[in-house]
Amino acid sequence: MKLYSYFRSSASYRVRIALELKGLPYDYVPVHLLKDGGQQLLPEFRAVNPDGLVPALVLDDGQVLQQSVAMIEYLDEVHPEPKLLPGNALDRAYVRGLALEVACEIHPLNNLRVLKYIKRTLGVADEAKDAWYRHWIELGFAAFEANLERQGKAGRFCFGDTPTLADICLVPQVFNAQRFNIDVSRYPTIARIQEACMELPAFRKAQPKEQPDAE
Amino acid sequence: MKLYSYFRSSASYRVRIALELKGLPYDYVPVHLLKDGGQQLLPEFRAVNPDGLVPALVLDDGQVLQQSVAMIEYLDEVHPEPKLLPGNALDRAYVRGLALEVACEIHPLNNLRVLKYIKRTLGVADEAKDAWYRHWIELGFAAFEANLERQGKAGRFCFGDTPTLADICLVPQVFNAQRFNIDVSRYPTIARIQEACMELPAFRKAQPKEQPDAE
What we know:
Two copies of one chain form a homodimer.
Chain A: E1 2-5, H1 10-22, E2 27-30, H2 43-46, E3 56-58, E4 64-65, H3 68-78, H4 89-105, H5 112-121, H6 126-151, H7 165-179, H8 188-198, H9 201-205
Helix pairs in contact in A: 1-3, 1-7, 4-6, 4-7, 7-8
């Protein structure tokens, strides 16, 4: 497999964690989101993923998968051990719900192309842009934390004592929060789970600074 | 089951389509996103869904599911006929990828709470706000259309000749596009699939104007 990735892209980080947890080898193809006006927009990359978004996962037969959560569901179906979703439907809905709280309510608003639009097209100053970035993380983390507490299904990780899709989406988002100086200790369960995840080699190996294109 | 819904919420519309396709009866509980400063933010609703987001799906035993795509995956697992995801992993990844192109790349940017922030906090004028709304739909639909063509898996619907999660996410987004005067005929495959979906009673019954809280 080949993963088109940018070290700091949190959607790429999600897929890297899943690949590491499954122990699946892959070739890392860096796509620099800031160089050349955004390498993800160049024809070479668009030939792989017409959306111009990273990550893109290319299977050995050349098939291209899009959207990080869809990639992880695929990897979990085709390489079922260790499982990244719980064994029953209700628990799976809980884990997917948490994962999508990050993937649909926080991350899309803080995407690079969105921040560019806010700055360049809407003419928003850097300070207000950074406040926007933090706003969606804080709102989302407050909801995520409330759900973890309310459902009472968290153990060492978001669901029980093994990492799932929820942790895979949460951890890269915590990295983003920390880059923007959000005090994650205000969300004690999230902070605790983050620490537990970072004790696992898969989460550490997949983190931005360990990637070949890290700066 | 009970669905907390707002007639115009496209995430609610997705779940309504899935419930109708499965033939599952449910109670409709309207949550008005504009009245009372947003009824989704009132303590009564937050007791159901602490996120303050519609839809929320309450199962007969009182369990609450969050995030529309997670709800639809749940319904598809527990009530498998008619299936909303294809039979093999690669095709499921394709369908989920399309669904998430809407759910992660378009819809989150055009959420009511996001539009409010842009207007009130960033002080963006209505005209620029509407251009923002259209920008993300146009970008997303161009990518969606390109993927439909490239993959060649569309039949009458996004995947083959029965509706899937991809159509369920696409159709409400087309409704939003039309409300903002986007000419959907510029995306011929999307336009064709939209028409095919609207021939099905499930998509018609679930549409905004058929809901008890429609205005």
